């Protein structure tokens, strides 16, 4: 185990292993550019990869990558970003690569190492950094996947822990950087209107829906061995469950947020394969990189239960899939039936209240109240909507939030091994006994069985979609 600091010292260099790779192209350069524009970068950045690139080549890649995400490039911002960057090439398996990294780091004492590398190289890089004497006071950001099941996640953690301390590891779940997610606990606990009703006495069930209109496209090689459950349920959507269901952090102790997350996940009952629906869109098997006889799910719907006094008896329904009718992510709290009114209003059984937090494509909150208008025969739901951003792009992207948090030295935006283990424990029964995969037509809401999963609860609500 390597030497650690237990402070929250600001990082004084960012070293990115895998700067020439795909994640850097689609996410990293853009996030760094946006942080530079907001004046939030203040340290050198060292890119490391195998290819022998010049700085001009790196700058070209950075420029193309940023432009491809739709950002308009401000030359002075781009110039400042490139001015703080340097590049080291070498094999991650060779000690001399880390000599080059050490030199490029200058006298930095609190480095942040970001591993944008294939998962089978996580331990190689961490060991290389430690072997080069660079792990003292360092933090390591690592990317998913953290194993492909509970046992392999445990084995990966053990390998990493043989070199560095758990407190040095920052595991990325980009939903922990998503604007909207952290706002859910705030909304719950800061509003006297909501806090007393946020429990089994008032809430009938919770629907968490992350639907995508696009398919697997050019990611067949990555996606086919993974599937929807591992891609987004065991991580992102369980974090949405956590935000809805966790207890309040301890006053004045931000570190307790991480503990609260893990505590909640440990109270989620292991998922029941009988309450799990797997789907695959027609045409998926023709995607490049997908096996002709693939049974990988591109759609998953499941029910979870939480064994604690607040949530006992309240089902949490989750659905996600590719090539569905619309791209949206939301969590919908469906309240219990209102009592029969019995005081002479037309229509004596008002519809149930709903509270929706939309997490994508933009962030917003909707409260649906039962209302009786003079021109309608029965009470109906009237929707009060608050949009927090008119267009995508106006709020920080998840990766900006995560970089900012990691550079500030804090770990609250990242998942601990305790959290990862608890997540796999919930999902493992579904991996052990997966039901048959059912075909669905692109452009629908997935297999009919997903609707049946909801029983008598009125089915999946039409998501909150603009326009
Ligand atoms: N791509 C994405 O959208 C996402 C990726 N992730 C995760 O991020 C991580 C990186 O993924 P991605 O960027 O797609 O991977 P890529 O395969 O595109 O990139 C890998 C990078 O590692 C470098 N590399 C690989 N082997 C060596 C070696 N032996 N020595 C030196 N450099 C090496 C490559 O350098 P070179 O090119 O010079 O050979 C390249 O820069 C993975 O853990 C992935 O699961 C997570 C979310 C989304
Ligand atoms: O990690 C992943 O997440 C995206 C969805 O992220 P979002 O922020 O757009 O909701 C998903 O499309 C992808 O398959 C998965 O790997």
Automatic annotation (TrEMBL):
EC number: 1.1.1.49
Record Gene3D superfamilies: Dihydrodipicolinate Reductase, domain 2, NAD(P)-binding Rossmann-like Domain
Residues given in the record as substrate binding sites: 174, 178, 212, 231, 322
Active site as annotated: 236 (proton acceptor)
Pathway this chain belongs to: Carbohydrate degradation; pentose phosphate pathway; D-ribulose 5-phosphate from D-glucose 6-phosphate (oxidative stage): step 1/3
Biological processes per GO annotation: glucose metabolic process; pentose-phosphate shunt, oxidative branch
Enzyme class, spelled out: oxidoreductase
One Gene Ontology term of the molecular function aspect: NADP binding
Gene Ontology CC terms, in alphabetical order: cytosol
Domain spans labelled Glucose-6-phosphate dehydrogenase C-terminal: 187-458
One Pfam family, short name: G6PD_N
InterPro entries for this protein: G6P_DH (IPR001282), G6P_DH_C (IPR022675), G6P_DH_NAD-bd (IPR022674), NAD(P)-bd_dom_sf (IPR036291)
Domain Glucose-6-phosphate dehydrogenase NAD-binding: 15-178
Binding positions for NADP(+) per the UniProt entry: 91-92, 144
Keywords: Carbohydrate metabolism, Glucose metabolism, NADP, Oxidoreductase
Catalysed reaction, written as an equation: D-glucose 6-phosphate + NADP(+) = 6-phospho-D-glucono-1,5-lactone + NADPH + H(+)
UniProt-listed NCBIfam families: zwf (TIGR00871)
Function: Catalyzes the oxidation of glucose 6-phosphate to 6-phosphogluconolactone.
Family assignment from sequence similarity: Belongs to the glucose-6-phosphate dehydrogenase family.
Name this protein carries in UniProt: Glucose-6-phosphate 1-dehydrogenase
The species this protein was found in: Agromyces bracchium
Source species taxonomy: Bacteria, Bacillati, Actinomycetota, Actinomycetes, Micrococcales
């Amino acid at each position: 185990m390597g030497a650690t600091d237990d402070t929250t010292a600001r990082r004084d260099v960012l070293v990115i292993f895998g700067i020439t790779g795909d994640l850097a192209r689609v996410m990293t350069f853009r996030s760094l550019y946006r942080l530079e524009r907001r004046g939030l970068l203040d340290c050198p950045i060292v890119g490391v990869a195998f290819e022998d690139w010049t700085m001009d080549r790196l700058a070209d890649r950075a420029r193309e990558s940023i432009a491809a995400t739709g950002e308009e490039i401000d030359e002075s911002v781009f110039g400042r970003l490139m001015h703080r960057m340097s590049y080291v090439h070498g094999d991650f398996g060779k000690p001399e690569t880390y000599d080059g990294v050490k030199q490029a780091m200058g006298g930095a004492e609190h480095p942040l190492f970001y591993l944008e590398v294939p998962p089978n190289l996580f331990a190689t890089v961490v060991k290389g950094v430690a072997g080069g004497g660079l792990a003292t006071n360092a933090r390591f950001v690592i990317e998913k996947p953290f194993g492909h099941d509970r046992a392999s996640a445990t084995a990966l953690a053990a390998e990493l822990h043989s070199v560095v301390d758990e407190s040095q590891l920052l595991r990325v779940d980009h939903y922990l950087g998503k604007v909207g997610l952290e706002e859910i606990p705030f909304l719950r606990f800061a509003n006297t209107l909501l806090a007393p009703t946020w429990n089994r006495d008032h809430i009938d069930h919770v629907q968490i829906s992350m639907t995508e209109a696009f398919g697997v496209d050019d990611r067949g090689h990555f996606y086919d061995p993974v599937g929807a459950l591992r891609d987004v349920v065991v991580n992102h959507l369980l974090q949405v469950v956590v935000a809805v269901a966790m207890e309040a952090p301890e006053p004045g102790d931000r570190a307790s947020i991480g503990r609260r997350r893990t505590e909640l996940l440990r109270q989620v009952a292991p998922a029941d394969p009988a309450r799990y629906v797997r789907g695959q869109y027609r045409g998926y098997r023709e995607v490049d990189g997908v096996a002709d006889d693939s049974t990988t799910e591109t759609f998953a719907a499941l029910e979870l239960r939480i064994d604690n006094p607040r949530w006992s008896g309240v089902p949490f329904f989750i659905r996600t899939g590719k090539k569905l009718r619309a791209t949206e992510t939301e969590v919908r709290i469906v309240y219990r039936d209102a009592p029969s009114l019995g005081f002479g209003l037309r229509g004596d059984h008002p519809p149930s209240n709903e509270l929706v937090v939309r997490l994508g494509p933009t962030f917003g909150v909707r409260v649906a109240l039962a209302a009786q208008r003079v021109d309608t025969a029965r009470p109906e739901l009237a929707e009060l909507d608050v949009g927090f951003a008119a267009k995508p792009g106006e709020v920080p992207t998840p990766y900006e939030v995560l970089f900012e948090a990691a550079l500030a030295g804090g770990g609250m935006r990242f998942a601990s091994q305790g959290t990862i283990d608890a997540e796999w424990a919930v999902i493992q029964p579904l991996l052990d006994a997966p039901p048959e995969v059912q075909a669905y037509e692109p452009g629908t809401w997935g297999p009919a069985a997903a609707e049946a999963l909801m029983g008598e609860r009125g089915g999946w609500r039409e998501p909150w979609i603009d326009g």
